[in-house]
Amino acid sequence: MIRLAAVAPARPGRRVLAATIAVLTAVSLGACGDDGGPPVITWYVNPDNGGQSRLAEKCAAEAGGAYRVDVQTLPNDASQQREQLVRRLAAQDSSIDVMSLDPPFVAEFANAGFLRPFDQADATALTDGVLRGPLQTAYWKDQLVAAPFWANTQLLWYRKSVVRAAGVDPAATDFTWERMIRTAEDQGKVIGVQANRYEGYMVWINALVASAGGEILGDVEAGKNAKPMIASPAGDRAAQIIGGLARSAAVPPAMSTMGEEEARSVFQSASGAFMVNWPYVYNAAKESVAGGGITQDVLDDIGWARFPRVDAGRPSAPPLGGINLTVGAFTKHPEQALDLIRCATSLANNVAYMLDAGNPAARGAAYDDPGVRAAYPMADDIRQSINDAGPRPITPYYNDVSTSVQITWHPATDVTAPATPRESAEFMSDVLRGERLL
User: Which domains, from first to last, does the chain contain?
Assistant: First the structure.
């Protein structure tokens, strides 16, 4: 059997070659299993700690030899994952049976005819007990085209000693971003965020806009004629918070080049007070203690609460991340691909994968498992945040929308209201109409 490694993203001048390689790869892989052995299901996965590979082995074993699974790992960067899959699917690559797809790209793939929809009976089973947040990302034009596998959200992480000294409660309904910034300033501390020009920055901006009751893009069904909505009171509130932090005494070092790990590092330092970040940071802190990177008293000083509010009278809309599983439209093995997805997204495997890979489950009941609750003392907060999370714009043109926002909102020190949201809306509109290149 021939198995080629994932094709590296091609430069513009190599598009014909990339398409040719994709077709040849499809032919080679599609032939596997035709020699009398069980069909081989190729599962393209986002990088993790090997948890998806172990889950693939488990599901293949439980299938009793009905199929084998070949796991192919995509690049680390979500945009590169998208590019690689789009190129191959555009060539009608039949070797792409199952994909671990970033939720913002589901609409684009479905609209292009790259995904095989689920029928109603399967849709019912694949969505039973799934939390509301990830469920919103699994449909396109009222049809289930993706099965939520694992979900993610951000919490507010804080140093207990800092909030105790300041006399504030991060879980209180009046604890807003602005109050958090003032608290950090008063205590001579900083706040960890994600503000580099990458998808993590878009996650933060979208969460602030959604938490203020707005949206970045409206009328998404109109495709390229969708209406940018970021130039709004909600967009202005987001800009005030981001620009306000960037120009405050609570600004972290090199804020405009800061990602998840940089935020975690500054939060765990002596200057850290608050941080917004994904739940992985808790286990990462425990590993840092074991490795001697931080002391036990730093870990013991870490507390958590829901993503901060923009306005005291409105609950926040926390960020939403995760992975959905989809079936490639050109697969030669749709039934086996569906069986693999049923297995991988089951409640039992939601629990197993969360404990193995550290990625939060999409099904709510997983958070009641004793093992999950022991490993994640903030399990209830994660579950509620995922349920209430606000997805990024669900549009076939998400890549254009996200890149437009990242460009116009970076660096954070230049962000002001209403200028930045207005510039962002104009830029995005031009890009969607094809009047400006990214």
Answer: 12-145+321-388 (3.40.190.10), 155-318+394-432 (3.40.190.10)
